[in-house]
Amino acid sequence: MVPRFSRRAGVFLWSSPLLIAIAAATRPMGMPRLTYPMAAAVVAAILSAGWAVGGRALRGDDSDKRKLALAGGLLVAAWAVITIFAAMGPPHLATLAENKLRYPLILMNAIAIAGALLVLRDALIGAGERLFSTLSSTAISLATPLYIIFCAVQLLVYRAIEHSGPDQGAAEMRSLDQLSIGLLFIGVMLTYLATAAAAAALGQTGWLGRKASRVFIGASLFALLCVAVRMTEALASSRNPMWGFKQWYALPGFILAIPAVPWIMLCLIGIVLLRRSGAE
């Protein structure tokens, strides 16, 4: 029997991506912003809920459950950090100091997610699944250096803006900025591929229901296609892929390539892993 607190913690975890997405949308719409103390409280609540649902398995003797708890915990923790982005708002509304903090957090999340999928691969191999788990870990291993390059260049851009002013600093780094954003889009597509492969592997082992696995795979591949269309449209129009678009069909890819968005489905997979690690 699942304790009542654990059930409530699970409900909160499942709803947290939607709640954070709503909070992130309030600032551009002119509504009251999420404050940093509130964001810190949400992060603490998500981490506490993750611990209650299955994170406690890290203290147990079952090595398989510890792997699932570690992988799920890293995925959920990476998503929890997104709450801080919601407090900042989008880059064009954030202060210079906030933007200089944004990219180290993205980098930290990218590394945490890569570590989670590598640990998950080890657990899946132990359960007899090798093909899709290897594809997932390979895709995320290729994506992570691209996130690192993107974050490093963005920090250089904001440092140039700090020293030379917004117009001159941005002009000096424009070419490098556009290159890094192109690499980000490739990293995002690889992340969606890694998510689809992880869902397929979990479906093969029965750790994720067959219908749920198909939903994750379909949503991930659809998102990958949308981002690819956005990249193609940007290349055809010679525009920066991160800002603006000419055709309506580029809008989904524009949204789905925002660095935090590809991690939503991985967070949900993390909750599945935590629930399995916490199951008796």
Give a verbal description of the structure:
This protein has ten helices and no strands. It has about 280 residues and is mainly alpha-helical. The chain has one domain (about 5-280). Helix 2 (about 35-55) packs across helix 10, helix 3 runs antiparallel to helix 10 and helix 4 runs parallel beside helix 7. It starts with a helix and ends with a helix. The mean pLDDT is about 85.
Count of distinct strands:
0
Q: Regions with pLDDT < 50 over 5+ consecutive residues?
A: none
Instruction: Give helix % range.
Output: over 70%
Please tell me the overall pLDDT: 85
- Beta-strand fraction estimate: under 5%
Q: Determine the N-to-C terminus distance.
A: 8 Å
The best one-word shape is globular
Question: What does the radius of gyration come to?
Answer: 19 Å
Largest sheet: none
Number of domains: 1
Order of helices and strands: HHHHHHHHHH
| Total count of helical runs of at least 4 residues | 10
Helix-and-strand structural type? mainly alpha
List the helices and strands and how they pair.
Blueprint: H1 4-26, H2 36-53, H3 63-88, H4 96-126, H5 131-164, H6 166-172, H7 174-205, H8 210-237, H9 251-256, H10 263-278
What's this entry about, in short?
With 280 residues, this protein is mostly helical. It is 79% helix and 0% strand.
Sum up the structure in keywords.
280 residues; mainly alpha
